[in-house]
Predict the structure.
Amino acid sequence: MRSLDPFRDCARDLGIPQDEVERWLDTNVRPCASLGGLPTGGPVVGRFGGLPRLPEDEPVPDLPFLASIDLAAVPPDATDLPLPTDGTLLFFADTSDLAPMRRRGWSRLVHVPAGTPVSERGPGDEQPRQVHQAHDLHLEIDPSLPNRGDHYSEGFEHGDELGEVWWDIAGEVQKGGPVQIGGYPWVWNNDAVRGTDHGPGDWVLLAEFGTDDDGLLGTIHWVIRREDLAAGRLAGTVACYDTA
């Protein structure tokens, strides 16, 4: 992972004690897979946009297709999640016109087992209404920290300020990209993992997609219980939407 010295420098400039900064990092820093369209030297682990590749017996959701992730291509140390070791994840979501607030079924996650024959097609074998320009997704392993300290401040006098430090300097540390696997959700208003009552269990961020619909910045989070992810029960995944 990339150095967190910019975080340390910013926290020091704010007068936060060094021992508290190091304890915050030791407690909270997690690896995440940052996926972007620019070649970075990391492996290609999926594709953003285009048409989805699905089995013939799997109906194509009537939703914009976001991306596919080849789980076998994701290095085991890229996240601390118990990800399936093979198969493909396909993400669909409609965030136009505040669809997540207005429409049930605004998102869908499909898992295609490895070795399943697939073909590229749109809903009803027709061209969908929205197709994102296709490009490969290159992986970089980045550190991830909370950008809001609200739910992580117990035992830290400056927890809120430390969250704000990450908000300010994350772009200097992470190579970034439109997709993130694992790590912490980027929070504009509501923490999709800890700030929402999904029910009992150890909920974690599976994937995050940044969006920009008509100038409205937003983020889609897919969250899941860690135990469900470890068992391959991806039907338990929940999608949340947060806007700037």
